[in-house]
Design a protein that fits this description.
199 residues; 5-stranded parallel β-sheet; 5 strands; globular
């Protein structure tokens, strides 16, 4: 089974492209969903409680991802240290879940799967992929989309600041899909790519 990795800046439309590929027949490997599952594991909750105390927990006793994000995306030096701890804690298990899901999709006869992971290169998961697709959109448009989702500009900058540069992501990509226009034009580009991949 062919695995497609999605790259791009914050709010570039990576998940949109992943969903469009899924609609065409690709299986979906969602790192965020796997990450949510990992954060609910008792051993991860215990490690988070030992590291950060009750401040990262919601009233229901589960880890509050928003509160955790405030810690791990804080400015240098604390933010990067805390983010590294969190990634060391969760990324190996997320990768295991993604591999298990890919294996299940392959067993079902799925021709391709798309890996939607915000930190694909940063986590070293490009090795899981056969093709890397870069979703391109200019920064003002991405900022506008992020603000439309309820993000503050500072949050946008903080998230983007911890990722590899857009130039490095673009350079790693095998295919570039422009997502600066209409959803229809993006869908047409995704369909062209899909047909070159699977016929």
């Amino acid at each position: 089974m062919h695995i497609i990795g999605i790259l791009g800046g914050v709010a570039s439309g990576k998940s949109l492209v992943a969903r469009q590929l899924a609609a065409l027949g690709a299986g979906l490997l969602e790192a965020d969903r796997a990450g949510h599952a990992v954060l609910e594991r008792p051993e991860v909750e215990a490690a988070a409680r030992a590291r950060w105390g009750e401040r990262v927990f919601a009233p229901d006793g589960r880890i509050d991802r928003g509160r955790l994000a405030e810690i791990v995306f804080a400015p240098w030096p604390d933010g990067p240290q805390e983010r590294e701890y969190l990634e060391d804690l969760t990324h190996p298990e997320i990768a295991r879940l993604l591999r298990a899901r890919a294996k299940a999709l392959a067993a079902e006869g799925c021709p391709a799967a798309v890996l939607d992971a915000p930190l694909l290169l940063e986590a070293g998961w490009e090795g899981l992929c056969d093709t890397l697709v870069y979703v391109d959109a200019p920064r003002p448009l991405r900022m506008s989309r992020a603000v439309g989702r309820g993000w503050r500009e500072e949050e946008f900058a903080a998230r983007e600041g911890v990722q590899k540069s857009l130039d490095s992501k673009r350079a790693r990509a095998d295919v570039i899909i422009d997502n600066s226009g209409s959803p229809e034009s993006t869908r047409a580009a995704v369909e062209r790519f899909w047909h070159t991949l699977v016929g």
